[in-house]
């Protein structure tokens, strides 16, 4: 079953960080975001929340 990002949420208090990743990883995440009609950022946040059990 492929990963599905969550719907975009209401704005919450946030912190800014910069992430460096390989071009290959960037392309894979960008493809998931485009296929689901959401932003790259929302996709990364959804993945992180899923991995640490916050979903």
TrEMBL record:
Gene3D superfamilies: Met repressor-like (1.10.1220.10). It comes from the Bacteria. GO terms for biological process: regulation of DNA-templated transcription. This is Uncharacterized protein. It comes from Candidatus Scatavimonas merdigallinarum. The lineage of its organism: Bacteria, Bacillati, Bacillota, Clostridia, Eubacteriales.
């Amino acid at each position: 079953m492929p990963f599905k990002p969550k719907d975009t949420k209401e704005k919450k208090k946030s912190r800014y960080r910069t992430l460096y990743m390989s071009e290959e990883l960037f392309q894979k995440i960008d493809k998931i975001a485009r296929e689901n009609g959401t932003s790259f950022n929302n996709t990364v946040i959804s993945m992180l929340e899923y991995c640490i059990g916050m979903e």
